[in-house]
Structure formats: C-alpha cells, structure tokens
Amino acid sequence: MSSRERILGRVRRALADVPEDDTPYERAVVRDYLREHGGRTVEQTVDLLAENLADYRAVVHRTDADGLPGLLAGLLAARGASTVLVPPGLDEGWLAAAGVTRVADRAESTPAELDRLDSVVTACAVAVAETGTIVLDGSPDQGRRRITLVPDHHICVVRVPDQVVSSVPQALERLDAARPLTWISGPSATSDIELDRVEGVHGPRTLEVVLVG
C-alpha cells in the first residue's frame, strides 16, 4: 500500500460518519470577513504598497513607461550587473538601454549556473498593498519559480494601478490556484532566537520593485 492510499484511507474513515446531507464545505464557514481595511483611493493604495514594500526592506522605485528602460539600465549598472536572467515573455524594450548579457530561462540550468548570474528582471501577477506582497505566477513574463529564488538580485516590475490590489482576498480572486504561485514580501530573510536578521537565506538578498505608472 502506498503512502497516498494510506492517507486517502484515513480521510475516508474520518468522514465515514458524516451525513450525506451535511452542509457542503464551501458553505460551512461564513466568509463575510472584510475584503479590505478602510477606504482608499487608487493613489493611496499604490502609496500604501510602496510604504509596506519599503518596510520589508525592498527598494522601491517609481517611473512611467517611457522612463522604465533607462531606470532599469541605471539599476543594473549601479549593481555592476553584466549578466541578467530574462524570462521568455519579458517585454524586450524594458532592457533596451541596458548594456548587459541577457540569459534565457532554460529548464536545464543548474542551481550553480543560476547562482552565478548577477540579476534577474521579471514582471509580476499582482501586488498586495496591505501586506507589501508581490505575487508571481510563472507566466511568461515572470519565468520559472526558481529563477527568482536563486539569483541574489531581483528587479520586479509592477504595472500600476492595474496590478495593484488592496488586500489578499482581492489578490486571490485574480490568481489561478493551479499555477505555481510565489508570494514575496521583501528580500529573503530570517532571524535567529536573538533576532539577528540574515538576508539572502532562501532567495534574493536584494529585491528592487519598480512601480510603473
């Protein structure tokens, strides 16, 4: 008997005494909780996102569509980045002004190869203002999950206000639960029992978020 069969057997035994006319799961729990906290304008929601991103030690930049290529080129130059990992669906114009070697997202790339790259640039699926969270869903402009977990420097572009929501419930409505979702709140970090913070533990040490209006 496999582990799967054992687990499903335990589930069936646990549910054996549940009446067939019992309240379905989706109606068993009242879900009338707040969808967002307080009323904010679009501009206030974007400002809250920027504030919470910075609170999580992400570096936040703002620009418009015309200024995006120049800003990205400046950020990569300041980092000294010469090799940049690029998802297959990323807008080619975003890196038009950057004098870098673009490296494709390949399934056969090893963790060691990814670790040697200087930076990765991606878009995002949605950004949550109340929690300062960026969500990636593996779409072509975001690439495989691992490309944003191994390189030490991640630049993520968020289109505002279209990709910004106030709350997690609003974000979940936009996301496909069957996709590989990565929820990012600041650079990767952890703290020990003495609260000494260490960054870059299981993801990028530096997260830069560009809000493009």
Automatic annotation (TrEMBL):
SUPFAM superfamilies xrefs: NagB/RpiA/CoA transferase-like (SSF100950)
Transmembrane segments: none
Pfam families reported in the protein's UniProt record: LUD_dom (PF02589)
Residue intervals of the LUD domain: 103-212
Highest taxon, organism lineage: Bacteria
Database matches in InterPro entries: FTHF_cligase-like_sf, LUD_dom, NagB/RpiA_transferase-like
Protein name: L-lactate dehydrogenase complex protein LldG
